[in-house]
Amino acid sequence: MARRPLPRILRTGGEHLARGRELARTAGAGATDVLHPVITVARGLGRLTVVSRRRWTDTPKDRRGPLLFLAASVLLAVVLTPYGALLAAAALMAAAAWRGRDRAGRPAGAPDDEQAQRLRSFYEALVPHFSVTEDPVPLYSHGGDWQEPFEAHEFDGAGRIARLVLRYPAYFADGEAEARVRVEQTLLAKAGRGREYRFVWEEEANRLALEVLPPLPADIAAHAFDTAPGETVLGVTDPPEVSCALAPDAGERGGEVRPVVWRTGSRSTEPHLLALGSPGSGTSTLLRCLVLQALRHGDVLIVDGGAAGEYACLVGRSGVVAVECSPAGARASLEWAVRETERRLIAASRARQSGIPVPEDARRPLWIVVDRPAALGHLAAAEGGGDPQALLQVPLRHGRAAGVTVVVAEHLENADALGEAVRQHTRARVLLGPSSVPQLAAVLGTAPRTTPPSLVPAGRGYVRLGAGPVLRVQVPATPDPYDETAAEGQREAVRELLPPRTAGTAASAGEAGTVNEVAEPPEVAGVPAVDIVKDPRSLDEPGLPAGTEAEPPEHAEPSRAEL
């Protein structure tokens, strides 16, 4: 069937229509300029009428009579006064002109020319993402009005965008991570790099909010946080993310902060933690912070795979079972940890079968802190021994029921060397230092809602507890008190948190004792003090009489003196 031709006016009259429309627009603008005073006075009279009617309505009925009498008296006085009617009319016109003037000007919060240009650049950059050719009335189109989809916007003092709320069409695939990442990268490029942004997608309302995040405080020192047993503070985060607040003595910074609280114990859904980061990102600082908090309610076994002396300040302290840095010592300590975990499980099972409370020595928390196990496994392989990391399998699998918490820290580039048990059972994850979105998604299981910056201070990163959201975190400054390059105030704060030394510690070790100079370990929850490196089986037989030596194992580990 042949197509019906268009009317002639639509085929040839486009120029005439455009010219006529332009002439009508010019005539309307000219008439508005000429009649502007009349329009202003008329608008003012209307506003005065509305105000008078509102006040008459608000006046109580018992006062309307006197008010009418007063108005009639004033009107009579004006009429009897020479030139009174003329003066009253002039005053009324002046009041109407003043009342009807255009006081709005530019609305409060309206962008200036430069800000409007920035918003238009945002709008034009989003057109390829939020428009399709099949849409008859696109919300985003080249040359369109940016004010329609942009609901709210704020700028900082430097003229850069600080907050932007926009709407997008319902057909946009906001459920696909790739599509959302493309939009976020576009907004990030237009908003300016070097800052952290949070993106909040509201799929139900087809709304996207972008806001600039202030930097987290990096001057909070280690402190005795007011937490309950089984609660450990990993660091501070943004106020909207958590509801609870702590008010630590922050030294240079006071006031409340929002902590990231990690709960451990038999009822915890994520009893073990894995911390990854680049060298110098603050993983050792995080472990020291956790150890100082754990020693308030439990005992700690530390394995320093890097052998850098980061935990020398904890040697011989009350509650510290041992601090090991050699492969043989680490293996012996972890073998004891395996047997201790099994002993706690058996003691708890027998107590429940007998209907009695679980013994105190089986309920006291035990923390196993392992720093850089990959380096330790490499040294053990070079010496012809097994990887001590394999001994963490039992505490990781059964530690939740036995009151044993395992914390592992490793460099991000050595994450592939971690065992399957470590990757599977550490559901609390921390990633410190500069990292990309794919790295965050691989470590934490999902990408954060914020953009990771390229330059961050030590102890800055992200944390995710179980299946919860990804949070920004800043670890409290917990330097080695023997590190002279650290700030003196922060070192003093750590020294105040250190537990006292045990009576069995040799006085010659002093504050500068090394890891292998530690004396006999302290008594832990009723278990006799035994050197777990010299005789790792002695804890299995605490009832041996004095002076009776246990039979040495077939493959005994070398003594501490031989190391």
UniProtKB/TrEMBL annotation:
ATP binds at G277, S278, P279, G280, S281, G282, T283, S284. It comes from Streptomyces chilikensis. PROSITE patterns: FTSK (PS50901). Residues 502-514 have a biased composition (Low complexity). Residues 552-563 have a biased composition (Basic and acidic residues). SUPFAM superfamilies: P-loop containing nucleoside triphosphate hydrolases. This is FtsK domain-containing protein. Residues 257-441 form the FtsK domain.
